Amino acid sequence: MLKKERQAYILHQVNLHNKVLSSLLSHEIRVSEDTIRRDLQELSGEGKLIKVHGGALSHSFHEVTYSNSLSVYSQDQKKVIGEKAAALIKDGMFVLTSGGTTIIEMARALPPALRATFISGSIPAILEYMQHPNIEVVMIGDRVSKNAKITIGAEAINKIKNINADICFLGINAIDIKRGTTENDWEIAQLKKVMIDSSQKVVCCTISEKINTLQPIHICNIPDIDVLITELPPDAPILRPYVDAGIQVI
Amino acid sequence: MLKKERQAYILHQVNLHNKVLSSLLSHEIRVSEDTIRRDLQELSGEGKLIKVHGGALSHSFHEVTYSNSLSVYSQDQKKVIGEKAAALIKDGMFVLTSGGTTIIEMARALPPALRATFISGSIPAILEYMQHPNIEVVMIGDRVSKNAKITIGAEAINKIKNINADICFLGINAIDIKRGTTENDWEIAQLKKVMIDSSQKVVCCTISEKINTLQPIHICNIPDIDVLITELPPDAPILRPYVDAGIQVI
DNA sequence: CAATTTTATGCGTATTTATGCCACATTTCC
DNA sequence: GGAAATGTGGCATAAATACGCATAAAATTG
Fold it and tell me: Does the ipTM exceed 0.90?
């Protein structure tokens, strides 16, 4: 990894989380903490961030948080989900993803050294993937839905059908132990269906408040899902039925 | 492998991945690292990429991280071009566009009441089109070039071949009365070629500075162009040869 | 077409840069 | 106050680079 690349990654993280820890960065990028420290110093000298003991802060966040400089990353629910999801991806994988905020968080949590191919029709997701230094990005084309910011239509569905992905990540809006996952948009439901068919492994990501809720259009049943990711620990009571149904809950 | 070829290959890799490593290139092309280094130096001198220790980075990568001013070069002129271009589009048209800053300005200049279908592989262009209340937007899918922020590859080319557009807008980097329009990236040149083939009418947009310049890869000849748009008035002396060649100059 | 010049490339060596490691100072937290 | 984490500066090392030079290929010239 080039020095500038590393620094770009650090800056990206700072802008994303408002703070970074040297120790974490060092672990993520797999370089010594000395190097991280030198990078932070350099970037600080250029005015790109503010160096503090143990890490660095973004400019925008600087005033508010002199007190808790060592507190952990803001553990937003969706960030937790994103991190759990990102951990499932290994080098060389073909990854198919939908759109949605949880997927965006996954994209942001990808380790910088990861080398994989990401395929999606979601424009915001593609924009995030493009920030990554090492992954290959493939966009699925078709008519663009302006509010979902995703390509939809027969063309997209056909294209996905011809893909054979290792893993597929779906941000879902509703899941229920009886009815499976459901959606409120017919075309997006179609897309997600074929994504599931085209993948070896299906991972559903959702915040816990959407568990045990329903939407009008059916996507898939519980047995079609391999992994369920929420912000809760896997042994949370609300997740119990899904564990019992044989899903790997993370 | 010829020097030009090698440098074109390097540039292409930079456009695709935002970075290249000297060691890797040297191994791939089977030339010494010295040669790669000299190439990178040369290309860097021409402003085509940014040389760093260990390899090189694309401009776009460098800009988003290292520079905080994302000012577009001679944006006012491009706005003029954008307005002229937008005026050519009528209700109901199928419009094929490349990417580039002039195209973005066109997208911004579209009258809100316009109802037309816009087709493009350029992610920034699609983002602009999505802002518009009435147009239909179609994204062409394929591998994403991280620097050009455009989808490229055989899939995209095939898709464009099957389109029959009314009009096609190309932001071009070089035009010359003898050699026609030229590009510096092979794959992008291919895309533009098929765009021209798939459209009834071909419109080239460029700032006047790029008139009478050359790039290595040929796209099309002057007779293939229907309309040429620059920021200058149509009777500017520099445009005279193009008017004489039968192009409608605006 | 031969002679000459220019250009492109690779090699060896000196130099610079990037990084990690260590000993020791400083800060933070309990 | 003291343990743990973090920062500092020096040093070692490996990788990348600059530079001079030799050689070969290509272009130019007479």
Answer: no
